[in-house]
Design goal:
The chain is α+β, with helices and mostly antiparallel strands. It folds into three domains: about 290 residues, no CATH class; about 120 residues, no CATH class; about 55 residues, Arc Repressor Mutant, subunit A, CATH 1.10.10.410. About 40% of the residues lie in helices and about 20% in strands. Strands 1, 2, 6, 7, 10, 11, 12, 13 and 14 form a nine-stranded mixed sheet that branches. Strands 5-4-15 form a three-stranded antiparallel sheet, with no helix packed on it. Strands 3-16 form a two-stranded antiparallel ribbon. A hairpin with an 8-residue loop joins strand 8 and strand 9. It is elongated and about 95 Å long. The chain starts with 6 loop residues before the first helix and ends in a 7-residue tail after the last helix. The model has no long low-confidence stretch (mean pLDDT about 90). Bound molecules: manganese (II) ion (MN). Manganese (II) ion (MN) binds next to loops.
Length: about 500
C-alpha cells in the first residue's frame, strides 16, 4: 500500500460513467474504479546502491555485493545513472521533477530481505504528478493521472522448489533499482487498464529507462480495484499484487470486479485486503487483510543524504529526450496525412514507426501505411519476428511498392511477391524476373484473353447486357487466364468497350 491519494481526493476526481463500461448486476449497474502501481526495473548495468551486475538469468547469488547482502557496516552509495533514468522517466510522463527527494527505510521482515528494510521513498519522491494519454481502439482519448514515481530497491527471491523441507534465497535481484509508478484511480474498465500498461511500457521503451519485459519481471503491476453504483461514494478497494502480464491484468480485474459486486449484492461488505491472481484458475484469492497489513514504520534512511538535483542537470536530461509516442503520432498524422488509427498502430514501437518512415520517404504515404500495418505486420506477427528480425528490409518493401506504382506488377501479384520476399529475403525485382510476374499491359495480349472468355461464354454476355454488374465475372476470368498478371485497369476498359458498357459505370 503505497498510494498517497486519500479517499476524499479520489472522490473529487469526477468522470462521468460510460454506459459501455458499466457492469450489469442483479440490483443495477456498477462502475469499476481502477488505479495501478507499476514496478518498472530501471535499465542499468549496476544496482541502485552497489556496483553489482543486474544481468538477468545469472547463476544464483553470483551478483551479490556485501551491500546487497546487508553485511554489517556496509554503506549504500547512490547510483547516479539510476537517478538520471528516474528523472528521464518523470520527464517522459510530463511530470513534476522534485529537486529534493528523500530515501526512507520501509521496515519489514522477510527471508529475501537481508537488511530488514527496503530503501524506498515515501513522503518526498523524486517525481510528482504527471499523466499518460491513452488512445483507445474506438478513437476515444483517456488521460490517466500519475500520482508519483519513486525510486526503491528490489528484494531478493525465495526459492521454494529446490529442496523438500527448506527454502533457499537468491539475492541476485536484491538492490536492483525499481521505479514505482503510481497512477491516480482514473481507469474505468479492464480495457483501459490494459491500454494504460501498454502505453506506459511504450513510453519507458522509447525513453530506454526500462526494457518493459514482463516475462522477466522487469515490469509488474499491482492493481487496485473497487466498484460502486454510478454516482455513489467510492467503495472499499482490494489490491491485486504483482500481476505480470497485460492479459492477466485484464482477467484479474474482470474476476475481481464481479466478485465484489456479488458480495455487495448479497448484502455483504468488501474487506480491504491484498489479493493474488492465479492465472491457472483465472481467480483472485486473499493474501492478507488490512488487520494483517504491515506497519512499515517509515523513517528517513540515516545512511543517505537527501537527494538534491540541480535544475541544470534536469534540463540536460530534458534536452536529450527522444521524440515520444504522442509527439510521434501527431507528427505522423500531420506530415504523412495518416489516420489516427494507423498512426497509433505505428507508434506502438519506435522501430515500427522508423520502418514506416524509411519506406514512406518519397512515396505515397497512405499506400505505404497500408502495406506496413497490413501485410508486413501480419507477417511479423505470424512468424513471431521483431522488426529487427524481419527478412524484408525497408528498402526492399519500398522497391516492391515502386513496382506497383510504375505498373510493372499489379497489387494482387505484389502480395504474392511479398510472401515470397518474406520467405526467401530476395529482392522483389529479382522475383518478378525469375518467376515471370511482370504485369501484362500489352493491349493486344489482354484483348486476346478477353475475346477468348467472351467467345466461350455467349450466355453470360447476354446476361451482362441486361445486368452490367455481371461484368465483374469477366474480369475475374480474364485475371485467371492471365495468372493475375493483366493490368486490371486495362482489362476493365477493354471489357467495357467489348460488352457495350460505359467504362466508368
Ligand atoms: Mn514498491
Amino acid at each position: 500500500m503505497t498510494t498517497m491519494v486519500s479517499d476524499f481526493e479520489r472522490a473529487m476526481r469526477k468522470r462521468e460513467p460510460r454506459e459501455e463500461d458499466l457492469i450489469r448486476g442483479a440490483t443495477g449497474d456498477w462502475e469499476i474504479i481502477l488505479g495501478l502501481e507499476v514496478h518498472a526495473q530501471v535499465t542499468s548495468q549496476a544496482k541502485l546502491f552497489s556496483a553489482s551486475s543486474t544481468k538477468f538469468g545469472a547463476e544464483q547469488n553470483s551478483q551479490v555485493s556485501f551491500v546487497d547482502a546487508a553485511m554489517p557496516g556496509m554503506l549504500p552509495v547512490i547510483n547516479r545513472y539510476c537517478v538520471e533514468q528516474a528523472v528521464r522517466t518523470g520527464l517522459g510522463l510530463k511530470a513534476q521533477i522534485n529537486l529534493r527527494s528523500v530515501f526512507d527505510r520501509k521496515n519489514y521482515f522477510y527471508p529475501d530481505l537481508p537488511q530488514g528494510y527496503q530503501i524506498s521513498q515515501f513522503k518526498q519522491p523524486i517525481v510528482g504528478e504527471g499523466e499518460v494519454v491513452l488512445d483507445m481502439p474506438d478513437g476515444r482519448t483517456v488521460v490517466v493521472g500519475i500520482e508519483r514515481l519513486h525510486l526503491e530497491q528490489d528484494a531478493g527471491k525465495s526459492l521454494h522448489d529446490q529442496h523438500p523441507s527448506m527454502s533457499f534465497v537468491d539475492l541476485n535481484r536484491s538492490g536492483v533499482a525499481l521505479m514505482e509508478i503510481v497512477s491516480k484511480p482514473d481507469m474505468r474498465s479492464a480495457e483501459e487498464a490494459r491500454a494504460y500498461v501498454t502505453k506506459l511500457r511504450t513510453i519507458l521503451r522509447y525513453l530506454g529507462t526500462c526494457d518493459g519485459n514482463m516475462e522477466e519481471g522487469s515490469l509488474r503491476a499491482d492493481v487496485n480495484v473497487s466498484v460502486r453504483k454510478a454516482g455513489t461514494p467510492l467503495g472499499t478497494r482490494c489490491e491485486i499484487k504483482n500481476v505480470n502480464s497485460i492479459r492477466f491484468i485484464g482477467q484479474a480485474i474482470e474476476y475481481e470486479a464481479r466478485r465484489q459486486i456479488d458480495i455487495l449484492e448479497d448484502g455483504g461488505a468488501i474487506v480491504q485486503e491484498t489479493r493474488l491472481f492465479d492465472p491457472k484458475t483465472g481467480e483472485t484469492r486473499s493474501m492478507r487483510s488490512k488487520e494483517e497489513a504491515h506497519d512499515y514504520r517509515y523513517f528517513p534512511d540515516p545512511d543517505l543524504l537527501p537527494l538534491v538535483l540541480k535544475q541544470d542537470e534536469v534540463d540536460v536530461i530534458r534536452a536529450s529526450l527522444p521524440e515520444l509516442p504522442d509527439e510521434k503520432k501527431a507528427r505522423l498524422i500531420s506530415a504523412y496525412g495518416l489516420s489516427a488509427y494507423d498512426a497509433t498502430v505505428l507508434i506502438g514501437e519506435s522501430a515500427r514507426a522508423d520502418f514506416f518512415e524509411a519506406v514512406a520517404k518519397g512515396r505515397d504515404a497512405k499506400l505505404v501505411a497500408n502495406w506496413v500495418t497490413g501485410d508486413f505486420f501480419a507477417a511479423l506477427n505470424r512468424e513471431g519476428h521483431s522488426i529487427e528480425q524481419s527478412p524484408v528490409t525497408a528498402k526492399q518493401l519500398g522497391e516492391l511498392l515502386d513496382l506497383i506504382s510504375d505498373g510493372t506488377i499489379s497489387g494482387r501479384i505484389a502480395k504474392q511477391i511479398f510472401d515470397s520476399m518474406y520467405k526467401t529475403g530476395r529482392d522483389p525485382s529479382k522475383i518478378v524476373e525469375e518467376e515471370g510476374l511482370r504485369q501484362v499491359t500489352d493491349f493486344g495480349a489482354i484483348e486476346a484473353a478477353i475475346d477468348a472468355v467472351i467467345a466461350a461464354n455467349p450466355d453470360k454476355v447476354e446476361q451482362t447486357k441486361v445486368k452490367p454488374q455481371l461484368a465483374g465475372w469477366f474480369v475475374g476470368q480474364v485475371m485467371k487466364s492471365t495468372s493475375g498478371k493483366a493490368n486490371p485497369q486495362v482489362v476493365n476498359e477493354i471489357l467495357a468497350r467489348k460488352l457495350g458498357l460505359s467504362s466508368d459505370g
